[in-house]
Amino acid sequence: MPCISVQGVVIYGEELNALKDAELRDLLAAYDEVVFAGIVPEQKSRIVKVCQDMHHSVAITGRKFEDLDSLKQADIGIAMANSSCDLCIENANVILLDKSFLTFVTAVKEGRLVFDNIRKSIAYVMTCKLSLILPFFLLLTLHIPLPMGASLILLIFLGTDMGTVQSGGASVMVWDVCSWRDMGPLIRLETTLTGDRYLSILPDHLHSFMSIVHPDGLGQFQQDNATPHASRVATKWLQEHSSDFRHFHWPPKSPEMNIIEDIRDALLHAFED
Predict the structure, then answer these.
(1) Over the stretch 70-127, which tens digit does the pLDDT of each residue have?
(2) Distance between CA atoms of residues 64 and 263, nearest Å
(3) Whole-structure pTM over 0.70, yes or no?
(4) CATH of 170-272, one of 3.90.190.10, 3.30.1330.10, 3.30.420.10, 3.40.50.620
């Protein structure tokens, strides 16, 4: 029989084989914490399927080739950049760059915070706009005169939209390059960065920066797989200038490179110390 505690249950591989799917679902529903020990990859896939049949969202980690099936089957596949095999990294939804799973917990908290902020913004916008559209609806359906003129309604629209933008609804996009020797130019992007726009940045700013900080041609440049970075025109330009500096390949489905995250993490550690 499985080893049962007050709040959880530990199920070993041999015991899992003796359980039917219905019995396994009952155990998963009865306890808040269920630990599986000594299981094989096939059993991991079975656990994922049973949890999904119970309408749970399943996140699973994979390090070896044998974990590939369960990694693909799970709702969220997690791989470790420094210990998982290449196939697991390529098929994972989330790749942890460090050895701590606490990073994933922090990412989930940040994602929930962003989702909650978006939901609040949508609720605010819908409440505001519907209250302004309602008089027009009443005019067309019930022939109730407008309580305010069209010009006043447009002014209210304009005022509320400006307030939304100033409270965080807008953002500024910039491009930068840095080296351990020096900082590169900070380029403000007036429009969304595209492959053609990025192509104009590479020769004017990246090439000149690499020529200054690495005049010997031994500089090494690395960027993430953002769509403009991986565009055909940008990739062709980098290949044509491979003699001036080396371009490192960024693994597929890796997190975006953002130095702000490293600075924020260093500040948090300094504050805690």
Answers:
(1) 888 888 888 877 777 888 888 888 877 766 777 777 777 877 888 888 888 787 777 7
(2) 32
(3) no
(4) 3.30.420.10
